[in-house]
Protein 1
Amino acid sequence: MTGPIHLDDRYDEPDQLRDQLRRLLRHRGLIALGVLLGLAGGSALSLDRAHTYTSTSEVLVRSTTDPFGSVGVAADNQVSMSTEQRIASSATVALRAARVLGRPESDAGTLGARLRVTNPQKSQVLRFEFTAQAPARAARGANAFAEAYLADRKTRNDATVQRATEALEQQITVLNQRLAKEQLDKATAKPAAQNQLYNLQKRVLDIRARDTDGGDVVRRAAVPAMPAGPGLRTLLGLGLACGLLLGIVLAWVRSALDTRVRTVGEVQAALRAPVLGLLPSGDGADDALLTVGRSGGARTEAYRALAFRLRQLGGHAGPGHVLVVSPRRGGAAEEVGANLAAALAENGGDVLLLDAAPDTSGLAGQLPLMPYEAPTLEEAFLPAGSVLVDADVAGRLAFSSSGGTSARTRRITTAEAGGLTEADSSTVVVTGPFLAQADALAIAQRVDGVLVVVGLGRTHRDELKQVQELIECSGGRLLGAVLDAGRPRRGLRALRRRPKYAAPSHADTSTMELPAQDGSLTVSRR
């Protein structure tokens, strides 16, 4: 099989937009958390604004730039509305408003903080918006600030009148003194001086007759009937939108920082090897380790497809010796190894399942082992210490374990006789985690190929890169990977604590005969 293996990968799409969306949806919990935070914030804001009322009053500002000599100047050019807006928000006006409301002068700063003064565009109107906890207080506050501003502006206008009339009265006094002392040329000088004196007195009368009011209240504040700000629905909608945006950002950050593999492309890029199988997630109804030949389902068919691909990779001689291993603990290497061996034996060949873990892993307790009997001529292929597995397949499946030999040297030698040297014979070796057991690397150097079991969403990219580098540097052959979407393994965890199977008493487990096609395999523990 020379071409690439095409799998129906529901975890990967060629469309980049869909791929990004799938990455975000993997962290639906963070998106939901962001939405909840947004709704909680909107609810809290609505509760805070539910007891807040705002009332508005408006004042028409009269011209004050030069009210006593601005003939021919337009009214809108005589008033600086930005200046008046700042004066209306000043501490002086707030102090006057506190007096109007009967509040102590120390509350002027608090009252000023609740005031908002605006100027509608292209108008000489100041709008006073006052916020309070009660509707009546809001209306009284807005009216008080409008009155305080007008009183302050009238005071400033009266001060301007006083300064102007004082200057003119000084000129009148000087002119009267000059007329009293003047003696020469009375016929010409006296009428001119009297005319000047008359003009000054007339101007003083005109200035004092002018209206010094700063403006008019064109809209008095009324008691508001509804609280201020947007309603509960608007705030909840805004909180939902903001929370959704926050959740998407959190999910994107989490996805960017997540190093776990979740797609076929990520596994192939990390291992630099093809993906030979994709095991769908189980329903958890059957906790049996061995399913091939005993029960059906999508997961069982995936094992058969994996065995078919391995036979194609091995050619006419079959897959030979295959090591099934996971990078770290918690993988499904035992399950994949047992079912792969059964699937290979379905074609009528002889398959040996070898548990090469340094300690008893509990694999034997999960297999339907047949009672040990002396091997007949047909069963002479069995290595020493191995037993047959009742897998209900066309071929013969044997199991052998090297558990309990951690302090000794384990040998895998060529069988002197037996059927496993035939072309349709295979051996599936299962060992401990590749990155945690030194024996796994030693075995990988001497088998025909290594099959890595990758847990989707559980295995990290750097772990796969380490496995690939170690196998490549040791000279081993990496066949590919099997992706496991997950399956409940409660029964296996419980049985691992108390293994049911022990090697037969007549067998010497320090030496296991593993038929090899190209020599012997020796694994030494240090």
Protein 2
Amino acid sequence: MNKFLSALLFVFSYGVVAQDLLSIEAFGSLPKTSMMRVSPSGDRIAYRVADASVDKDFYMVYDLKQKKSVAAIDLSAIRPSTAYFVDEDHLILVAEENAKLWGYRGRHDVSAAFSYNISDNYLKQLLQRGNGIYEGQTAIGRVVGVSTDAKSVYMPAWENAGNFNLFASKLDSKKKPKRVAKGRTDSIDFFVHNDQVVARERFNDRDNTHRIEVYEDGDWRAIFRQEEVELRTKSFVGLTADIKHLVMLQHNANGRVAYYTMALADGKIAGPLFEQQDKDVEYVLSDINRIVYGVRYSGFTPSYDFFDATIKKTIDDVVAMMPDNSVTLIDHTPDWKKMIFLVEGNGSAGDYYMYGSDGFSFLASQRPDIPGEKVSQIFQTKIKARDGLKIPTLLTLPNSELKNLPAIMLPHGGPESYDTIHFDWLAQFFASRGYLVIQPQFRGSDGFGSEFKHKGRGEWGRKMQDDLTDTIRTLVKSGYVNKDRICIVGASYGGYAALAGAAFTPDVYKCAVSINGVADIKRMMRDEKRDYGSDHWVVAYWQKVISEGNVADDHLEQISPINHVSNIKIPVMLIHGEHDEVVPAHQSENMAEELEDNSRSVQYLELEKGDHFLSNGSNRMKALKAIDKFISENI
């Protein structure tokens, strides 16, 4: 008996308990509570509340000492994804809207930052196109620092088509933003300390030159220059506490992303300071002025490291208290006396806790309609692919005997991303309905080292797809999965994988669901070149990911499911957001037409004003109900 079989049998050695089904709304609704933050004093928290009954969201501010709500913002007009306190009386909300830009073709996802004055209940957009800001840009929501008097924030943006500059925008005043530093056409970032710009980053798409420059005596001096690089190999993400170095992430000798520093004086690189043999530095932990104090590592569950040994021990102790869950550090006060954690995964649908000198205190549940005992268990293992590569895999287990089960193959998007042990609403819904949910981290996935990721280059529809097939076959051979009751469901790249599964392995699955997925890769690349220009790093990135290595001249046609609909024998469901700006809706529209023209079974659901991420509550529910009905009818 292999180790994999033994471990899974152990999971079920205590027997099976029947359970009542939770409603589809419990899983498909947006989290009741999300985006939890704590004020600098620790006396206030702020959080997003989704009210499914009226399909509205609010951002609430609650005073922990007074034990009452002190402010609330109706989020109907904006779609925030990030929020944080500047001080006790000001919040920044970063939001997106899908809009038409005057003078530009089509619709665009436009990001913006808003300042919210809690006392005055006043919401102000910080940078606005046309108000000294170039009209033809979609990203004006980034804050890179706060002024020393805390009355302004520093934000980079295009002032005109030739200059990407740094502006100071008042939190409360309606005055026009003030330019504080001038950039160049190829400027991409600025680093600020004590109201002074200390460095700027440039990357030129035309000559593929990456630069770091420091500002001295009224002029810019280069301390780093890398030429002939289509894609940046170094990521500059913050400043050290002494303001003498930039913090830089790059791959170490083992192919893992590690933490380095670059001296502002002379560009000398030191490190790595934070690194692990089996994990990447996923991102740095920094304050509102981008002063770095620690890192978060990749992995199915998060882990952390800090310069301050006391903070590190506290976080390690908290994580160790709940070894079977993902324990995510969400926010903290500047003195670290109060911290907010999100606990999710096995036995938790997502719960916020405050941790301080008096221990843990419960704040709120993301999904109060799903009690812990109703959360399906998540099991991690590795399954060997046909070429011997071990594929890390997550299995979300139904509450039934692990034998001859119907299954859902659920590949992640990206494709250079990865799944984690958290409350995955779609996986948990399927498991609650009796399906074994399979999430292989196929080659090309991020988080498992550069060698593993680069094994996916040029392997869309080929070895990346083989990894999914091999995982299924292993589980079928072991007796866990009924080979006649398997459906593949995915979003974005996962949607492509679902269509590729239907087209390239027509005997493996009984149905396929693609959510905002790619069907025609050649058309995708043509769209990217049109939107960004053929010299842009985004185009270079996709060319490497999709076509690097030994591929044929007609590679893009070969791996596009839309060109192989004659192979498809199973029912296909296509779901796409009308305003998806990541993967345009025409990808699914054209695939649906091609399937219909070839007399194949297809259902197409277009979500009105829907985006790439099913972020609208009513659209998510509509999609889940359609998926549930489709799969129930087919497996």
